[in-house]
Amino acid sequence: MFKNYLAGKYSKLYSRETFVAVCGSAGKTVATLAAGKVLSQKYKTITTEPYHDSTIAIPGTILKLNPTTKRGVFELSIKLPGQMDFFLSLIQPKKVLITRGEKEAQDDMVKLVEQIPQDGALIVSFGDIDSKKLAEKCKGQVFYFGEDSQNCTIWAGNIKTENFSTTFELNLGVERVKVIYPFLGRHHVYSALAAALLGVLENIPLTKIKIALESLSPLEHHLQIMDGPNGSIILDDTINATPLSVEVAIDTLMQIPARRRVLVLGEMKDLGDLSDRMHRQVAQKIYKEKLDLVFLSTGEALIIADELKNLGFWEEKVEANLQHSQLVGKLLKILGSGDVCLIKGQRSSRLDEVVKRVRGNLN
């Protein structure tokens, strides 16, 4: 495409310092937006648009650069093997944030890390084994974030879910600030930490980083809190469904006080030979947490139902092979005051339509 060719040529007009890349298996979009907010405290900054295919968003964002733009934050979402070669033909980022290692795209992520120059930086989670392996491939400096005060440059403490937001202490050496973060879930704290560490490397004060993180707006379909029928609460997390994202969403559901915790879950797609094992792994998570009610859609979500049956999960608490209209009808009938319902699925499953139709029946 001519647009890709033009973007590749245009990006060469800017120094490598301009480009920041965000990659990983979870939290990329939030980390990208958070990094953009943090850097905007010091520089004119642009970011790739959320919800857009990276192969389209990256060239388009490059072509929005101008001489007053000092930083661009680019989300690299790897959908196909070898896609990193295309991304690296457009940008050569000096700083790279990895939110979580991604086994399925390990070779591509190695390419991204290996291109970091000696005066560049890799920002990774200390608790992520895959990211540590990637760190070994980096010629530049490696900086860690997480919850370990001994091994992380910046770390979080006292993480809590309060009033449907996440609070945590952001620590840098002897400095500490409390952050009220508008995203639900412990996993989103890690996206905030990655962005905060980038800000520290750019000599942005911790107080300004706090302001930037707290100024973010919740994203549609990212554990978005909504009023449900009969005084219930809906958590709309219909942006994606990978094994990791499903498990952390369930963790978040378990942290919220509720009369009953209800899960609506679609199938996880594009898992190849791992699909059966990954769906059964999610079933084991559901069994462990003893969720009150589970409604499963069609397709490979039936594997989850089968595994729950094998585990001895209460059959009266599980219904499977449900079409959208059936899911809507059941939620309108059973949800009541004090219930919290997590609706989780990939965009292609269109469970966002279930959310929309359930809420469309509210008085």
Structure in a nutshell:
About 40% of the residues lie in helices and about 20% in strands. It is α/β, with parallel strands linked by helices.
Task: Report what the structure shows.
The protein has helices at 2-11, 28-39, 54-62, 83-90, 106-114, 129-135, 186-201, 206-214, 243-255, 275-289, 301-311, 324-334, 352-359; strands spanning 19-23, 45-47, 71-75, 95-98, 121-125, 141-146, 154-162, 165-172, 175-181, 224-227, 233-237, 260-265, 293-296, 318-319, 339-344. The protein has a 9-stranded mixed sheet with strand order 2-3-1-4-5-6-7-8-9, with helices on both faces. A 6-stranded mixed sheet has the order 10-11-15-12-13-14, sandwiched between helices. Helix 10 packs across helix 11. The protein is globular, with a radius of gyration of 21 Å. It has 2 domains: 2-144 and 187-210, Mur-like, catalytic domain (UDP-N-acetylmuramoyl-L-alanine:D-glutamate ligase); 224-359, Protein-Tyrosine Phosphatase, Chain A. The longest helix is centred in the middle third of the chain and has 16 residues, at 186-201. It starts with a helix and ends with a helix. The mean pLDDT is 90. The chain has 13 helices and 15 strands. With 363 residues, it is an alpha/beta fold. Strand 4, helix 5 and strand 5 (121-125) form a beta-alpha-beta unit.
The dominant shape is: globular
Low-confidence stretches: none
Amino-to-carboxy terminus distance: 49 Å
CATH class of the largest domain: Alpha Beta
Beta-strand share of residues: 15-25%
- Please give the count of helices: 13
User: Based on helices, strands and strand pairing, what is the structural class?
Assistant: alpha/beta
What is the CA-atom radius of gyration, in angstroms?
21 Å
By CATH, the topology of the largest domain is UDP-N-acetylmuramoyl-L-alanine:D-glutamate ligase
Helix content class:
25-40%
User: What is the average per-residue confidence, as pLDDT, rounded to a whole number?
Assistant: 90
CATH architecture assignment name of the largest domain: 3-Layer(aba) Sandwich
Q: Which strands sit side by side, in order, in the main sheet?
A: 2-3-1-4-5-6-7-8-9
Q: Count of DSSP E strands?
A: 15
- Could you give me the name of the CATH homologous superfamily of the largest domain? Mur-like, catalytic domain
The main pleated sheet reads as: 9 strands, mixed
**Tally of separate domains:** 2
- H-E order: HEHEHEHEHEHEEEEHHEEHEHEHEHEH
